[in-house]
Specification:
L-amino peptidase D-ALA esterase/amidase, alpha/beta, Ubiquitin-like (UB roll), five-stranded mixed beta sheet, 2 domains, homodimer, seven-stranded mixed beta sheet
Chain lengths: 411, 411
């Protein structure tokens, strides 16, 4: 059960003109489940993506980068294909060949060039991709292509997720309605620089390529790059921003008011989709926001926030609703900020002032800590007292269920 | 139950001339358990120590550093005092005052200067130290001082440990018997740069202070600084090497054959005591050795080894005996070695060659991986193919029991 995250229903999800989605049951790992998704884009679409920094990045990630690098006028990206059940990572040259064969097969069906297709995979690492089953499923996915198919799309990219993750927004720009819909997946192996996390966010606005690239980077650093479940960074993480150009709104500069309107809506939706992953974190019972303030720079704030968010001791204390808050101080202390003066540091748990000048706040009562720890959503706030930088990370607790899920994932 | 780690019996543990140990039940956190230890040293003893690098280092750690810094001829360290049940960390100025008061009280009883006493604490962080109870327990501990009291000493520093950790060695140097006995504690919040880990290793050899300092650093970097249970680095970690000078063996230079003989024995014993902590890791069911070879430098080998050792996904796979070994590749990939060429990388699990040139070894059979994963002791060996540096880390798996212990630690 995800933490305070209602399951979307199909009617919540608005079609985005210029993008069609088709799902299939290809039996990639197990029969009888949606495990293949094709997205077809209008010729007017621009696409921008960020990917895992894991050195073992998967074959499809390598190919995405190659195909995005090849875009030239007249050969825009026309399709994305996603499979679950197999990550096609740690698979060497044959993995790359399989990813190429996947693109070629879909390009054949859609009458485009293989370099106009972006492939994505998620699932088990170090296993050969069953590319024949994947290819055999493509015609079914293409036959299913519809603009109002976002709910099935969200279903078809799930792995250990307990629920599909999808949401829509509509905003007005220059009197025109602009629609945004996104889907995401991921529940484990989630950390900084992306996760076993896939995110696809599409709008029907027209956005020039360099402007879309700017927007993607800004948004990723404030959404999908701010979540952590277990500190593991996947080989396959990808977040794609798609502007189909089907609506009569054309954004050509990052300095425009139109850009700002769209950016706010994209960021809001991306944060919801990113947080949905944490709320559905493997075994999660609590949603934790960690905010580190008054740092010298964002980097040190993020270091400390992640140190707290990754500490198994902090995470099990949240699971137990036990205000064993010294564990948070310990995690701050080993975060690697070597010149940190702890005597300037304050710690709050929601509204409760726990530590003051690096020691226990004399007014702190354990009963107050206990009250907050019982909540399903908790904010940890650290003030470093040495600057004006701020960073926020979203994470969850560490429960028995996490161990159960990850000890049994393949069985 | 610790992994392949028989409980020592009192008769295993040799007295070390020049050091007496006395325990007490001071009721610091709970009544009826040994929670206080005093060690009294001969006037001829030299002492060397390494401590946590956590910025929230505990008050006793701060005081240890101060007192070790104050040593001058005629005022050697004469006693160590250790309490469990409270870490006296995150306690600010009053915590430091309490640690000073502890030293003063013991100095009074032993007729020495407070600066000749080193204090140590382990337990819950962010709680005031009940210094009156500690002081009230000191006379009982002093009354118990005996050279053959190592077993009780090991018992009295336990926290979530399931068994005492202690061992002895005897070696011959220049025809003289030299004895070494050590104790350690710790089972959680264990990572690099020490752990909620206390280690005390004493020998009756006489070792000049600068020589002992060299020996300590060499040994710590190859024993207590090579273990990880959960990636949390405690506020209180300390490893102390004591040479009482009571035996007729005098080591005055790091270049001597005598030094080498003693060093080997100290390292061997320190590794056993450090590994005993991992074997007794909270909830541990497996003992894992991670060796990274062929690196450019030791630092990058350690980075990768720790990335594997800290990955919750890798650790749960070990717990489940599931050869989901792609998780190890993912952990290598996000270790932060940014120019790593994974196409040169090989991975072995014991004798099984799992990955070759960055991809699945074509000869690898899952049955072979499964066979190894069922063992209670497993070696993960990574060859980076880019140099001659090596690093080894010892760790354990992540089980349901870990969550149970840490969700319930204070209750």
């Amino acid at each position: 059960m995800a933490v305070n995250s209602p399951v979307p229903v199909p009617s919540d999800l608005k079609a985005v003109a210029g993008i069609e989605l088709g799902h299939a049951e290809a039996g990639i790992r197990k029969a009888g489940r949606k495990d293949l998704l094709v997205m077809r884009l209008a010729a007017s679409a621009t696409v921008s993506g960020v990917f895992t920094k894991n050195r073992f990045c998967a074959a499809p990630v390598q190919l995405c980068k190659e195909h995005l690098g090849k875009r030239v006028t007249g050969k825009p990206i026309r399709a994305l294909v996603v499979n679950t059940g197999n990550a096609n990572a740690g698979t060497g040259e044959s993995g790359l060949a399989n990813a190429r064969a996947t693109c070629a097969a879909l390009a054949d069906l859609l009458q485009c060039d293989p370099a106009q297709v972006l492939p994505f995979s998620t699932g088990v690492i170090l296993e050969p991709l069953p590319v024949e089953r994947l290819q055999a499923g493509l015609p079914q996915a293409v036959a299913n292509l519809r603009t109002d198919n976002w709910f099935n799309a969200a279903m078809s990219i799930m792995t250990t997720d307990t629920q599909p993750k999808a949401a829509s927004r509509q905003i007005q720009i220059n009197g025109q309605t602009v629609t945004l819909t996104g889907i995401s997946k991921g529940a484990g192996m989630i950390k900084p620089n992306m996760a076993t996390m896939l995110g696809y966010l599409a709008t029907d606005a027209k956005v020039a390529q360099p402007v879309l690239d700017d927007m993607l980077k800004y948004v990723a650093d404030r959404s999908f790059n701010c979540i952590s479940i277990d500190g593991d960074t996947s080989t396959n993480d990808s977040f794609m921003l798609i502007a189909t150009g089907a609506a009569p709104v054309n954004i050509t500069s990052s300095d425009s008011a139109e850009y700002k309107l769209l950016l706010d809506a994209v960021l809001d939706l991306a944060q919801q989709l990113a947080q949905a992953i944490v709320r559905d974190g493997e075994g999660a019972t609590k949603f934790i926001t960690v905010t580190v303030e008054e740092g010298r720079d964002v980097d040190e704030c993020r270091k400390i926030a992640y140190s707290i968010a990754h500490s198994p001791l902090v995470k099990t204390a949240f699971f137990a609703s036990d205000p064993n808050l010294g564990r948070i101080l310990a995690a701050i202390g080993y975060a690697g900020v070597d010149d940190l003066d702890v005597s300037k540091l304050d710690l709050y748990l929601d509204d409760v002032w726990v530590a003051r000048n690096g020691g226990r706040n004399p007014d702190y009562q354990e009963a107050d800590g206990q009250r907050v720890m019982k909540n399903s959503e908790i904010t940890v706030r650290v003030k470093l007292g040495r600057g004006a930088a701020v960073a926020t990370i979203w994470t969850c607790d560490l429960s028995h269920e996490y161990v159960t899920i990850n000890a049994d994932y393949r069985s």
